[in-house]
Amino acid sequence: MLNDIIKRGSVQLERGAIFSTREVKIVLKSLDADQNGTVEEDEFVKWVQKGMSADTEERERMAVKTSLTKKLDQFLTSIANEITMTWTNFMKRSTNVRKSLL
Prior knowledge:
The protein is mainly α. Helix 1 crosses helix 5 and helix 4 crosses helix 5. The longest helix is centred in the C-terminal third of the chain and has 35 residues.
């Protein structure tokens, strides 16, 4: 999922910069706030909201710490891109529907 979202979000990765199995396990463990072995939707959404609410400078500072934090920043960027594309497409369809109704 992590690597798929990065690809869908049109973020350019450095060569070989996909999440390894070890990194995925680390990420999933950190996302699992209640430590029940499952990442629930609300846990994931809270993590995304926290990451998206960070200002650009803070995200840049975090991204350079390790290769994993850089990948996580790219993951957040991909989510933002996907949301933007989805919203843009929705607005285009809505505009076309309104025009066809006139």
